[in-house]
Write a structure and sequence with these properties.
By secondary structure, the protein is an alpha/beta fold. The chain folds into 4 domains: 25 residues; 230 residues, 2-enoyl-CoA Hydratase, Chain A, domain 1 (Alpha-Beta Complex), CATH 3.90.226; 129 residues, no CATH class; 57 residues, Nucleic acid-binding proteins (OB fold (Dihydrolipoamide Acetyltransferase, E2P), Beta Barrel), CATH 2.40.50.140. The protein is 49% helix and 16% strand. It starts with a helix and ends in a 13-residue tail after the last strand.
């Protein structure tokens, strides 16, 4: 009995040793993952939607941390505030990480970095320049330091512009300062970044307590965050102790819909889609029945309008573009020999320049694209004007007079008269010369319902004088 117990103990010990790696692997697999979301380029509605979706997925899959890896020149205020609100309400802690080396978190990116539970930067990166820029109508200060207003009656508009600029700066300053106070970071520098557009390099930002740490890469970031306690912003949340040293990193790729919307919301592409839409519909109206140009034009125009309603558009620019396209259509239907077309080209060019404020990072329209589209429109106008000139040069004909010069085929002839086929119709003809069936003749005069014809001169094409 004692020997049997001894062997049973030995077997139990061996079984425990054999199962130890499996148990360890189960513990390792139970460590919640870390989600990595990339923010690159201008921050717009598509970016905000993608970040929101990623944070929701992280909460559903019980991730322990979401890392927002940023390289952005800034973007739209509404999109930035949507992302900040999602970060503050996220049940999963969020770490903002400016990477890789050479990246930046300028303008709107600075607000996102301040909103995150952890702010980190890679070496040779920078943040700052958070002064708000005016979007929409040009010449309203653009968020820059207001200049001294002129004296006299003209000072009222300038004072209004300065007041609006000051309101934007004060609002942005208070917003960024509140985020700094929430996360325990340098609020004084936050206000300076808004009012003076200053920037900081990674090491300087760490020394001035603008960020929490500097990490060479994502692995180094997770190693430094291991064991740190963070409190999410959701109601009733408790502090979460991170275990990121050996955690699985799940890179969240943008879904096809977000990528498509991100591409469509590019201002340059929106302008191209608008032109395709207008020209497609115009071609369909001029040539009913083709169908394809109308379908393509309608879809392109709707996509362009969707993209524009998501951008900080200048309504004066939109009005000028639509006026220019209307002039193009008028030139096609009511030829003015280039007058309407020239006005349309001018209106379109100025409208494209004013459509998007080029000071908004990542949302300007390249001048080269505007030049190309303007030249295409000018070529269209020149083509329509040339066709109008040619039509004007042709003699106007109506009724039987349009038959003069037409080519006919003799069906039967005798005694100076007979019948011929003109445009698929039988006509009575007379001629001073003998004709034979099948011979090509040309109409020289129309008298009542009788056509006077003559042989087609040798070397002349029978199709040249077909009625228009």
């Amino acid at each position: 009995m004692t020997m049997r117990r001894h062997w049973l103990c030995v077997l139990a010990l061996l079984l425990a040793v054999a199962l130890q790696p499996t148990a360890g692997g189960a513990v390792q697999a139970a460590v919640p993952p870390v989600f990595l979301v990339r923010i690159q380029g201008g921050i717009g509605p598509a970016t905000a939607a993608e970040v929101k979706r990623s944070l929701q997925r992280a909460a559903q899959e019980h991730a322990q941390l979401v890392v927002l890896e940023m390289d952005t020149p800034g973007g739209l205020d509404n999109a930035m505030r949507d992302i900040v609100q999602d970060i503050l309400a996220s049940p999963v802690p969020v770490a903002g990480y400016v990477a890789p080396s050479g990246a930046r978190a300028a303008s709107a990116g600075t607000y996102l970095l301040y909103a995150c539970h952890v702010a980190a930067m890679a070496p040779a990166t920078n943040l700052g320049a958070a002064t708000p820029v005016e979007i929409g109508m040009p010449g309203t200060g653009g968020g820059r330091a207001p200049a001294a207003p002129p004296t006299g009656a003209a000072s009222a508009p300038a004072e209004h512009d300065d007041t609006m600029a000051a309101k934007r700066v004060n609002d942005a300053s208070a917003y960024l300062r509140s985020l700094a106070q929430l996360r325990g970071r340098n609020a004084a520098w936050a206000e300076q970044a808004v009012r003076e557009s200053v920037s900081l390099a990674a090491n300087e930002a760490l020394a001035r307590k603008v960020i929490d740490l500097v990490a060479t890469d994502t692995a180094d970031l997770l190693r430094q965050l291991d064991g740190r306690e963070l409190t999410p912003g959701s109601p009733g949340a408790v502090a979460v102790k991170l275990a990121t040293a050996g955690a699985t990193v799940v890179r969240i790729e943008a879904e096809w819909r977000a990528r498509l919307l991100g591409v469509i919301s590019d201002p340059g592409l929106a302008l191209i889609l608008m032109m395709i839409g207008i020209y497609g519909l115009l071609f369909e109206f001029m040539n009913p029945g083709f169908i394809a140009p109308g379908v393509i034009g309608g879809v392109a125009l709707l996509l362009a309008l969707w993209a524009l309603q998501m951008m900080p558009i200048n309504y004066a620019g939109v009005g000028l573009i639509l006026l220019g396209l209307a002039f193009f259509a008028a030139e096609a239907f009511v030829p003015s020999y280039g007058a309407l077309g020239l006005g349309g080209v001018t209106a379109f060019a100025f409208g494209a320049l004013l459509l998007i404020d080029s000071d908004v990072p990542g949302f300007g329209i390249p001048l080269s694209l505007i030049a190309v589209l303007t030249l295409i429109s000018a070529a269209f106008v020149i083509g329509v004007a040339r066709m109008a000139v040619k039509a004007r040069a042709r003699p106007a004909r109506a009724g039987l007079q349009r038959m003069v010069g037409a080519t006919a085929e003799v069906l039967e002839f005798g005694g100076g008269e007979g019948w011929a086929l003109v445009d698929g119709e039988r006509w009575r003809i007379t001629a001073t010369q003998p004709l034979r069936p099948g011979q090509q003749v040309r109409v020289s005069r129309a008298e009542g319902l009788t056509l006077q014809v003559g042989p087609v001169p040798p070397g002349s094409s029978s199709t040249e004088a077909s009625p228009a």
